[in-house]
Design goal:
7-stranded mixed sheet, globular, 8 helices, Rossmann fold
């Protein structure tokens, strides 16, 4: 179908269609719960636990971007947060809702595309992303940062967990320009400390480090080949 592009969003949508995994992809991905996917475990990220133990995070309102099957959302709710957890996949959210019901915690789950999600300005004390950023194409990256900046309260925290470059599970090192030449994110873009510092330079850097791998089963989750970061607005 040919569409006349008359707005910036028309252009963004066209580029999305070139690169984005469709919602059906993620529904199929979460359909088989027994397959050996490391983050299908029901344990929070080790860096998230660290932020609480260090006293960085207090009770408040949290937005989780790309919550998947809800393992981090459950942890945040148990720490006393009011949790708004968003994901593209209805199948992932159904699994997350079942886990929340079993744990007897209340979480506001929402199926939505981040870039179409109406968010209140200066509303959240904490925003967490454990897997969205490396699937976001370069043309949407600036908008992603603007969404976080707008939705987060002054003095609030933003944390991200994403592929490091050349990680065991992903982390392509191709340039942003090459993404469009190849019409592919190659399974997910890889990040370095320097790249995260450049992307989130409007925030105060608190910590950027490699994720600590944790052998399962455990009360926490961690994988080699990931980089974690926390910033303050």
């Amino acid at each position: 179908m040919t569409k006349l592009m008359t707005t910036t969003e028309d252009l963004m949508t066209m580029l999305d269609d070139m690169l984005r995994e469709p919602t059906a992809f993620w529904n199929e991905f979460y359909k088989e719960r027994e397959k050996e996917v490391p983050f299908f475990v029901n344990a929070p990220d080790e860096n998230l636990v660290q932020y609480f133990e260090q006293g960085l995070l207090q009770k408040g309102t949290v937005l989780e971007l790309g919550c998947g099957a809800g393992r981090n959302a459950l942890y945040l709710a148990k720490q006393g947060f009011h949790v708004h957890a968003v994901d593209l996949s209805s199948v992932a959210l159904q699994w997350a809702k079942e886990r929340a019901m079993e744990a007897q915690v209340h979480i506001q789950f929402e199926q939505a595309n981040l870039f179409e999600l109406p968010l209140k300005e200066n509303h959240y004390d904490f925003i967490y992303d454990a897997g969205c950023l490396h699937h976001i194409a370069p043309h949407r990256r600036l908008q992603y940062v603007e969404i976080v900046q707008k939705a987060l309260k002054k003095g609030g925290y933003f944390a991200v967990n994403c592929f490091a470059e050349n990680g065991a599970y992903g982390g392509s090192t191709i340039s942003d320009w090459e993404v469009y030449r190849q019409r592919s994110l190659q399974g997910g873009l890889g990040y370095t400390k320097e790249k995260l510092q450049a992307i989130f330079n409007a925030f105060q850097e608190i910590e950027i480090r490699a994720m600590r791998p944790i052998e399962q089963p455990s009360t926490m989750f961690g994988l080699d080949g990931f980089i974690v970061a926390i910033f303050k607005k």
